[in-house]
Amino acid sequence: MRLVFAGTPAFAEAALQALLTAGHELVGVMTQPDRPAGRGMKLQASPVKQAALAAGVPVIQPQGLRLGGKFDADAQAARAQLQAWAPELMVVAAYGLILPQWVLDLPPRGCLNIHGSLLPRWRGAAPIQRCIEAGDLETGNTIMQMDAGLDTGAMLLREAFPLAPDETSASLFERLAEQGARLIVEALADLDRLVPVPQPAEGVTYAAKIDKAEAAIDWRQPAAAIERRLRAFDPFPGAVASLGGEAVKLWRARVAQGGGSPGAVLAWHADGPEVACGEGSLVVTEAQRPGAKRGPASTVLKPLPLHVGQAWA
């Protein structure tokens, strides 16, 4: 099928590669503009752009798509290029910009989205992180027909799998990327036979974009909730606890049954310090100090003034 692909991160790159392997005619790719990254903050192309160029697929990177908006010139140029490519269908995966109606209407067979959640659960920007944070027992991908709403379109395919008890966003991104890539190929192969199913009105939740301000640990929360947040925020933005003015990232912990003033260090175990929470306690097992590598909390945190009875902010 003659396709245009819109996506940006590694999650989307997996789908692009699968479509190329399946023999579809990728006439163009739309991805986010290059962004500063790394220690030198040099401009870096998205994983999707790198994969597209390696495969010889032309790429456009509009800053915006709203005609008459702030980036009208980009939107006009993007429209002209999409019309010239004349795709039958557009596949979208974690693109990063809202597609206006003119984009949705351009391909005769519409736009299909690979959404990393079991819709209508977790519509929005961060379904992968939010499902871990909320303690969901399962997740999966939904292949949906895009409409003007936020992840409200009819569902074509929906496949679930259980979350592992130690699941992090990093591991879940990989699992969902692999599944989503497989499902979009299946959906396109069976497109004429698939029956669109409207999303139910019940069970709708919104996965708000992850904000760096959420990184600060609130020890007044239950230990189980904090432990889930550590895994949900791995690798970004990390969960941070302040100690003596030093922002320490906590990456792994296990829930324990200790009690005390939230934030107080209750004991030191072989694998790290035990800290009281609003309900239960956490034994921190992996941490990272500023400018250093992450490692076992028993060694990373030992040099810090983190004594039994002391409060950890």
Automatic annotation (TrEMBL):
Q: Which superkingdom is the protein from?
A: Bacteria
**So where does (6S)-5,6,7,8-tetrahydrofolate get bound?**
117-120
* Domain spans labelled Formyl transferase C-terminal: 209-301
Transcription in keyword set: no
GO cellular component labels? cytosol
Q: What is its EC number?
A: 2.1.2.9
Xref: SUPFAM superfamilies: FMT C-terminal domain-like, Formyltransferase
Q: Which UniProt keywords apply?
A: Protein biosynthesis, Transferase
Recorded hits in NCBIfam families, A to Z, give: fmt
- Function field: Attaches a formyl group to the free amino group of methionyl-tRNA(fMet). The formyl group appears to play a dual role in the initiator identity of N-formylmethionyl-tRNA by promoting its recognition by IF2 and preventing the misappropriation of this tRNA by the elongation apparatus.
Question: Per its record, how is this protein called by name?
Answer: Methionyl-tRNA formyltransferase
- What is the species listed in this Swiss-Prot or TrEMBL entry? Inhella crocodyli
